[in-house]
Amino acid sequence: xxxxxxxxxxxxxxxxxxxxxxxxxxxxxxxxxxxxxxxxxxxxxxxxxxxxxxxxxxxxxxxxxxxxxxxxxxxxxxxxxxxxxxxxxxxxxxxxxxxxxxxxxxxxxxxxxxxxxxxxxxxxxxxxxxxxxxxxxxxxxxxxxxxxxxxxxxxxxxxxxxxxxxxxxxxxxxxxxxxxxxxxxxxxxxxxxxxxxxxxxxxxxxxxxxxxxxxxxxxxxxxxxxxxxxxxxxxxxxxxxxxxxxxxxxxxxxxxxxxxxxxxxxxxxxxxxxxxxxxxxxxxxxxxxxxxxxxxxxxxxxxxxxxxxxxxxxxxxxxxxxxxxxxxxxxxxxxxxxxxxxxxxxxxxxxxxxxxxxxxxxxxxxxxxxxxxxxxxxxxxxxxxxxxxxxxxxxxxxxxxxxxxxxxxxxxxxxxxxxxxxxxxxxxxxxxxxxxxxxxxxxxxxxxxxxxxxxxxxxxxxxxxxxxxxxxxxxxxxxxxxxxxx
Length: 486
Known about the structure:
Elements: H1 3-7, H2 9-27, H3 32-52, H4 67-100, H5 105-126, H6 132-149, H7 151-166, E1 174-177, E2 180-187, E3 191-195, E4 201-205, H8 206-211, E5 214-216, E6 224-232, H9 238-250, E7 262-269, E8 272-281, H10 287-304, H11 323-331, H12 339-347, E9 350-354, E10 359-361, E11 369-375, E12 378-384, E13 387-394, E14 399-400, H13 402-406, E15 414-417, E16 421-427, H14 428-437, H15 439-460, H16 472-485
Antiparallel strand pairs: 1-2, 1-5, 2-3, 3-4, 6-8, 7-8, 9-16, 10-15, 11-14, 11-16, 12-13, 12-15
Helix pairs in contact: 2-3, 3-4, 4-5, 5-7, 9-10, 11-12, 14-15
């Protein structure tokens, strides 16, 4: 050991502590291995310096006749115990992070507090030669009093340790605790913090989270369930209602194909029959959009099947309107027509059923008829890079073939049936005079055509490929390879 350190250990020891703190700050969080190595090496050097100077942390300071040196040596010995506790907590924290990740931070803090408590008692007993037994007995009585006073808080703390150890949920998980649903933003000593879908912050005590019914909506990953209930008239045959609701599920592209969405009868009573639609989405943010879309699709498919929500009237619901005329009302394109004009147009419409897998309109076909979907689900696909890309799904009331009717051009998409259903065909020759007489209908169809063309073009735009980040070593290898070839 250098002579300076051996001759002046009481001055070298604080300097070594400052070096340790400086290295800890300079290395930063980005280099945990180097920080750990530097702290352990500084502690070993600190211990070697003390023992080489005759200062034993397990005994009182060796210079009772020299009061200043005795006091400084006592302080250095106490610092050794605290330094040892800090070094041990850093090692344990590093091992916990490697094993359970940052979710074990609460357990790390509790273990660290216990280690520092033991180190403080050991320093009081060995260095200051205090009566540790009496101190422990007194601290035991104080601990009992504090335990009774802080029973609720301690329950939250130990429940937090259990939650961090068993890990039923982690940060950024979507969970439901006793009916409170939200994303986990923080887990501390006492509580779990949830950010709800309404943007509010819910603080749930850890003791309640450990005892309550807990649902982790983020596990398994990329699978989030949703369900909605609809009550229909008890006079509606369940099979007919289930088929309409299954078509509604098939029309929602946001729902995952596996696990497959389902429809089931939840309960039945004289007031109505409750049906439950269940499915899964790939992201939590898609649940609200998928639920809203399902409600709209369910309404449209039920209406197409002649089923009214919470209705006590007999089926079919529309007694004074034909099915074709009711479809014209639902489509929204023919709102400008008078009742007599709508009746006249509906009389010329022809209903044509289709099966699942039938191609209603192929790529490049010029349609001389306007197709209005009565029942069923139709998929719209675009050719892209030798493959097909699904642009959307259509349901009751939506129209196909407006490009051929308006401009006589072909639509660069294919319309394929995903389920059994039917369409009503309206000839261009019959529709032409109606478009000339009612300019509002032509303008509505033109806006629909422009919207679909822009949406298809935006869908087919190639996304720029992100250039891979290349480091200095990769660049040097590439440069050396070029030099070698030349």
